[in-house]
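Bug: token stream looks shifted between consecutive jobs. Job 1:
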Amino acid sequence: MATPSHPQYEAANYQACRPRYKASLADAIVAYHQQDNPQPATDLGVDVATGTGIFARRLAARFTKVIGTDISASMLEAARAASSEHPNIEYIEAASEHLAAINDHSVDVLTAATSAHWFDPEKFISEVQRVLKPNGTLAIIGYNGFLHFVDYPLCDKVSVSHCIGFNKLMSDLGQDAGYKMVANVYQTYHQLLARAKWTGIQRRIYPGTIEDEPLPDAPPIVSPEPVVVEFEATWRKLRGFYQTASGVVKYVQSHPNEENPADVAVRDLMATAGATDLDEKLRVQFGESMSLPSYYTSSETTIPVDQLKDASPEHLRLYYAAQVSVNPNLSTPSIPASIPKLYTDTQNTEGKHMALMAVSEYQGMLQNFFVGLLNAKRIVEVGTFTGASAIFFANALKRNGVAGGPDANGNKPIISLDISEKFADIARKNFVAAGVDDYIDVIVGDARENLASLAGQTFDIAFIDADKPSYEAYYNTVVENKMLAKGGLIIADNTAFDCVTPFIGTQGPIGDDVAPLKVSFPTEMAIGLGLSEAIGRALHNFNEYVRKDPRSEVLMLPLFTGISLIRLLDA
């Protein structure tokens, strides 16, 4: 295992014997950064734990300026000596979790090349979020030491055995988490990033057999060939590579009279292969991975005003809209105080993609506005999840002077329907935390049946945000049972979801024989939310049904993932 930021590391051996990062790797990272990015700048690239600057030099031709950081002064001295032909690289002595010399939101791309196993993951990701620009890119790349010997396959087990031994030496240094992270080729970071506000996460591995237990909710992309490193190996160079392993380095320092474990490993490997020439050329393959997420700092994330100069036009519009939409003179803020913690808790417990099911802060403010506009008193929503939308509605009702608690008929102002007892329990706890539990009743079960059981009651707003194939049934239940009060509004969420857009231009209901347009949408998000072509068809058919329904008129707002506002013509 590499230790490029170890203060006592031997820079010369590291420089000579480590595998080389493929020239195409930096191009792949930049291409990802620029794909679908509203502001794909390449002004500043940062390579943390840069060691002797191997990957920083790969970035130099692709960025106006590159900063390489490391905690080892000797490694940085070697890096400067090797970078004389790259005047745009600056080397700074700093830990990867504490990049004090780098300004907030100033970095376009930040890379960690076979080094992230040495970091405190939570602190590192937090620091990366501080220094990256909106829509900036993080690349966590690396390889493990479990080699495949193409011409000597019997050596594979011997190599694994010795690498485990090296890892045991590393474990003695108190770095169990580090070597386990390398063994699972940085799967840990993928899980961490998925819980935070990172988008478009791609994780590529080679070969496909290096993961014993792939993440069920985020299967990796298996590359047909190596994408991270290339290694012109000989037995001698392999011995030098093993000598740079952190556990080996520490063992040699503490046991100067013992045989070097790297020498033992190579001797065993050569014996297994029947080899005698240390300079024999070898064909070996490393297990490797590359995680590429981008950090989209939304209008719901606080950014210092002086950093907005780096934001995209889309970001500026959202930021400005959010600022002017909050009246500081309101007795109750438009954004309930408990909402940020609700979002954080939902991401931590359910994962990033599931957390996207909660309405955003800006959409919640829009719901608040409709409550005030309609002078709403009662609301029914289909789809509770962890309770964000209901909290926004209750907050607005409270601001409008609507009292909490059951009315004369035993009904609270808001009735929320969900099929999941788990989410209903979470939502109820969130309602208590928000101080609105006396405004909301949650009914668990089949929402179609439970919504029909409310016939005879009237509501000012019906909010539909549940299973997409049932939207038409929910809509008809409200309309046919005259559950909408005069001047009331049906709000259907997600009606322009990514899986709907391939059907743009297709009018009328569609069946399985109608092929969608070839329009791509974020695959990771689609997997996480369970989106599919079938759901796209169902939402499209709902949109067409409402559009042609003589009982109502509809306006779809192209905001978020589409919001359809529906009013009844005879109400």
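Job 2, same session, no restart:
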Amino acid sequence: MSDDDDRDTLKILVATDNHLGVWEKDEIRKDDSFVTFEEILQIAQQQAVDLILLGGDLFHDNKPSRSTIVRAIDILTRYTLNDKPVAFQVVSDQSINFVSRRVNFENSNFNVGLPVFTIHGNHDDPAGADNLSAVDILSTCNLVNYFGKAALSGSGVGKIRIEPVLLKKGNTKVGIYGLGNVRDERLGRMFQTPGCVEWARPAGSPDCPQNEWFNVFVLHQNRVPHSQNAKNCIRESYLARFLDFVIWGHEHECIPESWEHAASEDKSFSLIQPGSSVATALSEGESRKKHVVLFEINRERYRTINFPLESVRPFMHDNVVLQDHVEVAGEDTEAITAFLENKVENMIQKANSRAVGGCDSMLPLIRLRVDYTGFSTINAQRFGQKFVGKVANPHDILLWHKAPVRKTKAPGEVSENASLSEGIRPEALDERQIEDLIAEHLQQHLEILPEQDLANALHNFVDKDEKQALHDCVRAALAETQTAAVADRVAGASGPEGDVDAAVNAQIQHRRNQQSAQATTASAARILPSGPSDASLPQPNGTAAIDEDDDMGVPGPSSSRPAFAGQGRAGSRPPTAPESARGRQATLGEAFGRFGRNTQQGESSARTAQSPAPRGRRGRGTATPVATPTPRRGATRQTAQQATARMQQRASSEDLEPSGSDAAEDLVDEIEEDDDDDVISLMDEDEPVAAGHALFLASLTHTLTRSPTLTHSLTH
């Protein structure tokens, strides 16, 4: 390569899914992720790269341990801080591109000689009230340049704008688009809905035409479905057609050789899937050789060079069917044990023979999937004890499974999941996903709680230690159903007066119809090319131009029904009245929350609750003792009807029009005066809910129809 070519060549070392801190409590494997990550930085130094580009999941946990953070900071400090000059420039708006609002090597307080650019993945994604992650810590320390943390805006599905980091080295101009992990189902719907994804493009000028930019996109999403009940994945056809190269993170199987995807008849882009640098699961995809990729760009030309990682722990994966190898009766456990022991010994020998460099002293990982159809199993823990000191995972060497039973289909019958199951790899069946368990056991029984929202809440509760995740999920789903049911009663669309079941069932049916329409639209969109909206990005000289020739969209689902809280739930809240209507009439949610919280506690002792604001005609501004009823089964609607009648009689005699908040307070008083602890059912007698919510819905019909302000705020 000539000196001129070298001055124009931008050299990027690409790695994804480093998972620092994985297996940190395993005495044998606790150092694996750090050793390999350090090797990656050594390769970067040896190849004199301009920058390192990481594709997400730098950390294995959303809240890594202090030891993991300290070791990560130590490694990055030793390899990235030096006096080597940085040979490229960032010419885009850094305050938009980076979380730190400034690229680290331009900070005069730090000598950064090897810049690291990274997005977040699904393991180290931002969470909590401040939307922070461990990657933010490294960014604040000026050790990495954290980009791709796009903010989701808008209602419903939401909108997202992807801004490029524009780099210039000599005559080479590169735009790196980054997008940190977003839930696949939501991002897939956004890509399929016109106008929901906007790509900012550099504006063209006489000195720098727009087509001179080499466009790279790095993302961290599922590329193929990994379970039978997978809701969505991101298809190559969803991506913008102007892209030249795509780096796909999250998929752990290493596919370092690039392949082409035809975005249109006259345009295509290349993809690579570097895979993980450490095995986080004992699956077949993880057993393939690990690599990092050197990506060199010279103007409109590029090339990739693969570098195998030599410090990765050896891993052998194999499958065996006992019916094909064991010529004994199915109950002969001694013969089965002897056969499997011999098989594992051979796998250990092969793994040790493939070890190179520093790996020859590392105990290998061994995983044997055993199809035991027609045979008895043996104790896997006892079996593993024979290989202690020979393998790194003696307790989970064997994975027992049976061949799936194929149902006989009628001629011409097609399975509902036929198209999905064709793309599932065998190792995807090694692990059970939360979504699969919920779909398998609860799909036919969930009506108020959406299946996907419950799965996400459980995932956040377990993996991200968000203590309020399940509580927030239930509260949001209940608020959506209550709001929609009240609105339906106001509109008179739910049947006879006081029929709570009809209102709630109508909302449940509406949700099911909406989900069915979205699934149909998503299935149709998978076979159609889709491209989001495209906007220009101003150059440093301030010029801008609009280029929409790359736009292509697939119509998304539509509904004539107003959108209420919880539809496209991420970031949504129950609707409230306008500011002008707040005060006495606006706080319908206060009444729900006040009485609902007391009822759901299930405590037998009385408690007091502070009224959140003065309540109008009764002047309620002080603390009011509220008895906490204990829910029990076997109630009818008589209590609600009696309370409604008394409220109407009182309003008529006093010639007053109760507001929303007053009506709520009145209803609470009526229930307390009755001293009736009955529970009323929203669905049927076998599914009771707290009396406060059901009685409130049943008794508020008359009040809502006489309160135009509150009715207007609910319906809009």
